[in-house]
Design the sequence.
């Protein structure tokens, strides 16, 4: 009996101790471009400004042979001590007043580290798309990892993921993820990456 009384007292005291704080869900980031892809395509200057605040490092939006372009500074995705590191980049194109394409590229040239590079590329997209306020990241994550070309639509945009071989190395390749205004066909021609 005494033993039961001691166990009951211990159980009561255990329930009175400090409780772990209740975990609150992490709120989604407030999108920097309310209006999603529709707004992104409608305002090149604002889009570039916002994307640069997110770390994309995009240069001036200027005409080249009648088409406006802006290209980012390539970002290494993995080891930097290799002759040709894997790099990602972004390119925007259109007219002075609106964008007709936003392209994200990943050049896989260090084949010993290409799996890690794809994971980094996916992470960039899945983190920055919600910050930017655009959709589509979840639909392209698995195709990027498997390098499987796809096309589809998301709110305000049509997208295409392509895979092309790059010159200069055995099995060097470029993944290009292109977003264009809803109802258009993505031009999947290869952008410059440097």
Sequence:
């Amino acid at each position: 009996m005494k033993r039961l009384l001691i166990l009951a007292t211990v159980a009561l005291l255990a329930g009175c101790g400090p409780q772990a704080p209740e975990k609150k869900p992490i709120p989604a980031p407030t999108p920097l471009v309310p209006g999603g892809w529709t707004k992104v395509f409608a305002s090149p200057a604002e889009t570039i400004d916002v994307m640069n605040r997110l770390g994309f490092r995009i240069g001036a939006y200027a005409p080249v042979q009648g088409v406006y372009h802006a290209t980012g500074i390539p970002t290494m995705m993995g080891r930097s001590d290799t002759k040709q590191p894997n790099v990602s980049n972004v390119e925007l194109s259109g007219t002075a007043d609106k964008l007709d394409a936003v392209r994200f590229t990943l050049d896989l040239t260090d084949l010993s580290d290409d799996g890690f590079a794809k994971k980094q590329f996916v992470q960039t997209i899945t983190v920055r798309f919600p910050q930017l306020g655009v959709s589509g990241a979840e639909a392209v994550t698995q195709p990027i990892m498997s390098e499987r070309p796809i096309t589809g639509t998301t709110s305000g945009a049509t997208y295409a993921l392509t895979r092309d071989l790059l010159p200069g190395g055995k099995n060097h390749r470029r993944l290009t993820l292109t977003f264009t205004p809803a109802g258009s066909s993505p031009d999947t021609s290869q952008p410059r990456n440097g």
Strands lie at 62-64, 67-71, 75-76, 87-94, 99-108, 150-154, 157-165, 173-181. The chain has a mean pLDDT of 85. The helical segments are 2-16, 36-42, 44-53, 114-132, 137-146. Residues 135 and 185 are 18 Å apart (CA to CA).
